[in-house]
Specification:
MetI-like fold, mainly alpha, 316 residues, single chain
Amino acid sequence: MWRYILKRCLLIIPITLGVSFIVFSIMAVTPGDPATMILGNGGTQEEIDRINHELGYDKPFLVRYGDYLYKAIIRQDLGTSYQFKTSVWSNIKQRLPVSFRVTAFSLMVASMVGVPIGVLSAVKQYSLFDTIPTVMALFFAAIPTFWLGMMLMLLFCLKLPLFPATGVSAWKGYALPSLSLGLPYAAQQLRFARSSMLETIRQDYIRTARAKGAPENIVIWKHALKNALMPIITIIGINFSLILGGAVATETLFSIPGLGSMVVTGIKMKDIPMVMGGIIVLSIICSLIMLIVDLLYALIDPRIRAKYSRRKRAAV
């Protein structure tokens, strides 16, 4: 098991390098330059050339990429923002906890709503407990996140002033962003939980457990759910990565100083260190999340643990 974890951790290095090269290449071929974005339309060509030279933007592409890798890997320096003149790492440290809290609350809403209702929908197939959740899942899956956020803001900020419209200075500020992000993902997890549970309860061992007289709640929650959790855990891990890096519209709507909005602002301003730092941190976090998902497989499924144990005994 430890050897597998070490291999997966080492695999993060080439993944991060590949992501950094792709993002650096995309930023290099996009039109414009940092000096023009900083000075605006009022800058002269001499000032633009001088600032680009100070930033090293006039160097060849591979030289600039090599310099960035040297600073990031050897000196552990993600650079300085072109626009704000502050350390990229300090900006990430300020914004990452906010993004983590929004992601955690949104995923909690999605899991607490989607998974139990999906299991109930599978158990009560073709009844109203199946039809109504399926229709609601399709409805919320089709709603754009920003539109749902605006509707929640209209209802709970203007009509019923229960939550603040912007900012996350208090816990109430996380309520509406978490709902606007969590409900569409809850619809997705409901469909996955329903399909996984339907496939599991049709297996032979479930019919055997029922034939032996096991109570229905034991059959569902102890035997069926544990095997149905595998794809559900996978989609939860994927959704965590998607929400963490893709909640740009929600962060913009509710004025949340998160990591996604930082990366989008950096792209608009051609702030290469800001974009590179944010994407690299997100890629590392996503890789670690998928490692945790694989370890949860072994925790839930004894067959996977037995496979690792056989490998360990064979190695000895």
